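Severity: low
Component: inverse-folding endpoint
Summary: output formatting inconsistent between runs
Steps to reproduce: submit the following structure tokens with default settings.
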């Protein structure tokens, strides 16, 4: 495995730090947490989404202890890469990095909490977003993993 291209510190950002960015944070920590510092934030903090906890547990990853935080909670923290998952978070990341040499990537990611339907329909939507994030993370940050979706 070539870890030469891994950034030293990665921040995932979404709107509330309640679902997509915590999922991505947990996945990258699983892959490279001993080589890369990983964190996540939202434009504003929100309560962790229970369906997100459930679909991540299906992968063997526990995000139940995650506590939402905002960009304002990042005092003095520097990152090599910010991955924004929503337009709102991307705008905030651009503002944050006007005076810093930080790479920004935008990975548009739908919000599965907006899905309507019964429990099975909603969980299927959450799994789809989880699996999309997992594929993107494994492509962008290659590594070995016991988890396969």
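Observed output (run 2 of 3):
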């Amino acid at each position: 495995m070539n870890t030469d291209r891994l950034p030293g510190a990665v921040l995932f950002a979404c709107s509330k730090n309640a679902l997509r960015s915590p999922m991505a944070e947990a996945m990258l920590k699983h892959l490279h947490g001993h080589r890369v510092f990983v964190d996540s934030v939202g434009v504003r903090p929100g309560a962790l989404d229970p369906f997100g906890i459930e679909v991540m547990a299906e992968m063997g990853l526990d995000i139940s202890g995650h506590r939402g935080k905002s960009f304002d909670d990042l005092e003095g923290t520097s990152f090599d890469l910010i991955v924004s998952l929503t337009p709102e978070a991307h705008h905030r990341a651009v503002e944050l990095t006007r005076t810093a040499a930080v790479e920004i990537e935008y990975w548009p990611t739908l919000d599965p909490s907006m899905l309507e339907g019964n429990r099975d329909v909603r969980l299927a939507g959450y799994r789809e977003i989880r699996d999309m994030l997992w594929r993107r993370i494994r492509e962008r940050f290659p590594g070995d993993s016991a988890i396969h979706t």
